Amino acid sequence: MQFDEFFSVVRERLGSDKGDDSSKKKTDIPAGLLFKCPRCRSVTFIEEFTRNGKVCPSCNYHSRLSARERLKITADDGSFREFDRKMISKNPIDFPGYDKKQQELREKTGLNDAVLTGRAKIHGEDLVLIVMDSNYMMASMGSVVGERITRAIEYATEKKLPVVAFTASGGARMQEGIVSLMQMAKTSGAVARHNEAGGLYISVMTDPTTGGVTASFASLGDIIIAEPKVLIGFAGRRVIEGTIKQKLPDDFQSAEFMLENGFVDMIVERTKMRRVLAHLIRLHRMPEIKEGDDNE
Amino acid sequence: MSEPLSASVRLDIIRHKGRPTALDYIPMIFDEFFEMHGDRLYGDDRAIIGGVASFKGTPVTVIAEVKGRDLEENQKCNFGMPHPEGYRKALRLAHQAEKFHRPVICLVDTPGAYPGVEAEKRGQGEAIARNIMEFMTLKTPVISIILGEGGSGGALALAVCDELAMLENSLYSVISPKGFASILWKDASREREACDIMKITAEDLVRLNVCDRIIPEADGGAHNDPNQTADNISAFISESLQNLQIKFQKGLDEMINSRYNKFRVVGDFDEFPHSDTQPEETKAENIQ
Fold first, then answer.
1. Chain A contacts of B156, Cβ < 8 Å?
2. Could you read off the pLDDT of A95-111 as tens digits, one per residue?
3. Is the pLDDT of residue B23 over 70?
């Protein structure tokens, strides 16, 4: 029940009336020229918005990036080596239409599922990167998302590398039923082992981080960072409003709300993210891996 | 067990007013149950109870999600929907069990974690995530039994275990059938239809490698004979504790590895080493 309608919440926030199962999802850019901010509702020319790193110039809402856009502004040029890119999901509960839908999305997005994982460098620091992409079924977590993330963390544990995960998700992937729920256990288990081995894991919550992803690896970082104004929560807003029979304030389940309540370590702006990550990784560098090349 | 019933018929059975809850089963299955209260951080959640008890002479820790049998009980236990402090109490008791080397027995019965303002403020997502992670490496045997409803993350928070059993008519799902219908079809009234395509019965979950054992209920459902159902649960616990004892003797690491692998293997995907449909800029690396 707590996962009920979290997709609706996300849709509501973004002012879109299309479901995640609609193959031609409406973007939040009316007429392709303007960006309407889902947080403050102000309208900006798309050109200015893009130049600003897809951050709303009036309220500083950090809007969604595709996984590839995120990689481009995060990893050192040419450093990303992708893992498991040829892994695609099957249909564990024989959900009608799921195979076809995946096929269409693969063609449309150029992704094989809702997450990219791989080795990368940030300011020369080696790490394993996990980047979710909400353009693919609202980055819901099914078998492929769970397996890629788990393998990426296991790889990092073995190679003694830090993990940075940019999370974004509507939660569990309904179409995979219980198998989707088990991905929460699988990914969290991998984090548990990474912890026991003394590995660093930084979780960066981006818009939107909700449901089963919030209730698993996204909330388990040694350090939890959020981008400004993004949606972070467990239960869907509409479900909660239905429970309490009143409207919730706008900043409910925002990054700032989570910071105030003690579930996020820091809010970091997009333009500063690379530098902050590199610094934090350097401060946690395990001495046996490298030493003596600090250059800042 | 006779003819398998459909999931929607089982939904009626687990919603039967007389269906026994954890409050009924605990005194029938365990002796000397001492309830322990509170998470030591915020408060005491009545939707999850826990404590130390004796199972046929063996000390165990019992942690149970509680549904009420009438309105008054339901108000107290919030209709079986825990808040973060409930999950944190469960984790506290699990660590206590670890310290004293007693097995943990979790009885799961919840529509889901509570979706409310206070629950969000106190970190419902974080509480569930932490339980999942810490149960994964808990250094003592863990058995979970789904009694009625196993609703999504709120159930999983008490179901990361060495052996998972389900009562014959119980259902365990990623989301309530109602939520499923309302998200995918925008129509919550198609709940029963959702139920039947979601693959959420005990038999489905055995096939999907999630459930290890099915515990038979009395004919027509547990409410027809709670004592017999309780005996069946006891028989399962005895057998399971024996199995785990054997695993445990082989070594703690082995037991924890096999718990990890129980979840590690769940997933349904293909890998095509020869297809090449991916965009430029990335080089593949096979990590295995």
1. 181, 184-185
2. 999 999 999 999 999 99
3. yes
Task: Sort out which chain A residues have CB atoms less than 8 A from B283's CB and list them.
Answer: 81-82
pLDDT of residue A288: 58
Of A147, A181, A192, the CB nearest to B174: A181
Residue A292's pLDDT is 52
Is position A149 within any domain?
Answer: yes
Residue A175's Cβ-count burial label (10 Å; 0-12, 13-18, 19+) is buried
Examine residue A35 and state whether it is found in any structural domain, yes or no. Answer: no
Per-residue pLDDT at A212 exceeds 50: yes
B217-230: pLDDT as tens digits: 999 999 999 999 99
Candidates A87, A96, A240; nearest CB to B115 = A240
Tell me what percent of the residues of chain B surpass a pLDDT of 70. 93
- Quote the tokens at residue B185: 């079809």
Instruction: Quote the domain boundaries for residue A270.
Output: 64-283
Best of B152, B178, B208 to mutate (most A CBs within 10 Å, chain A):
B152
Contacts of B264 in chain A (CB under 8 A): 150, 186, 189
pLDDT tens string A5-24 = 444 454 455 444 444 444 44
Structurally, chain A folds into a number of domains equal to: 1
In a domain, residue A103? The reply is yes
On the question of pLDDT at A291 being above 80, the answer is no
Q: Which domain holds residue B51?
A: 7-262
Structural domain includes residue A224: yes
B282–A178 C-beta distance less than 8 A: no
Does some domain include residue B272?
no
Computed over every residue of chain B, the mean pLDDT equals 92
Flag whether B194 is in a domain.
Answer: yes
Q: Chain A residue closest to B80 (CA)?
A: A1
Q: Do B285 and A119 touch (CB under 8 A)?
A: yes
CA atoms of A122 and A238, how far apart (whole Å): 38
For B284, the closest chain A residue by CA position comes to A82
Determine, yes or no, domain membership for B54.
Answer: yes
The ipTM, to two decimals, is 0.93
- For residue A90, give the chain B residue with the closest CA: B269
Q: Which residues of A touch B83 (CB under 8 A)?
A: none
Tally the domains of chain B: 1
List the end-to-end C-alpha distance of chain A, in Å, as a whole number.
49
What percent of chain B stands above pLDDT 90? 86
Mutating which of A178, A220, A222 best tests the B interface, going by the most B Cβ atoms within 10 A? A178
Q: Which of A93, A158, A181 is the best substitution to test chain B (most B C-beta atoms within 10 A)?
A: A181
User: Which member of A8, A182, A214 has the closest CB to residue B210?
Assistant: A182
Residue B281 included in any domain: no
